[in-house]
Amino acid sequence: MEDKIKNFKIETAHNRINVCKREGRLEFRSGDNALQSVINLTNPHHLELKNLEYLMAVLLFIPVPERILMLGTAAGSLLHFLKHHYPCSDITTVDIDAALIEQLLRKEILPPAQPGLRYVYDDAAHFISNSDQSYDLVLVDIFNASQSPAWLLEKKSINDLYRLLTRKGALAFNLLINSEHDFKRFYRNLRLVFDGQTLCLPVKGFENTIVYGIHTPGPPRDMSNNIKCATRLSEKLGIDLMRVLGVIYNTNPAGHGVI
Q1: Number of domains, the chain
Q2: Which segments in the chain show pLDDT lower than 70?
Q3: Is the residue at 5 inside a domain?
Q4: Domain of residue 234, residue span
Q5: What span, in angstroms and rounded, lies between the C-alpha atoms of 101 and 107?
Q6: Is residue 106 part of a domain?
Q7: Which of 56, 66, 125, 165 has the smallest set of CB atoms within 10 Å of its CB?
Q8: Helices assigned H by DSSP within 132-179
């Protein structure tokens, strides 16, 4: 991938993105120079941004997901990660910006559609309202400019997402919400829909907040079991999940939801 990629710009009806190759990485920045995504050109399956590592720590709390839904494709760092570590999983990725995705496919930045990987060009709100499929893992990584879209924070959207989950499934949000009032209202509704089976964690050095909702709680797991799981998955995924687990315990009181 690395030899083929040069600096370029993408302008579509939905995005204006500057793509810059720097020190073996491909950086995707918005028109106001905000960093949106990073691809490691040598190891595209490696997650370069800490907020995405925190997002994928939801895997600590569910079995290996057989069916995965991604809302928001971006530059494909999560997609490369999932295809590498879970090659047998069936992945559907939904994005409204067909022009962006098609350009990234032509430049071979995104993996091509194939058995077990499908691209859907649709508005995420429309998709989750109308889909009759079910998924073991739903990842929400969509933004309107530099914020999570308002519709995503509404209880209807949370209910729609919950409906798409299998009983062993989980939902993980990568959020940017400036309003503390809006976040509290969103999280209160999330806890109502998920019967309190939620976790929330900030990402140091980022404005993002990561939030999980677990459909059906598994058997009680004490800290020692969580540590064993984090150690095992850290080796498999190349993520320091012990660090993320520490943030989870420091941010969420004991007996609060999943832990």
Answers
A1: 1
A2: 1-5, 218-221, 255-257, 259
A3: no
A4: 44-251
A5: 10
A6: yes
A7: 66
A8: 155-163
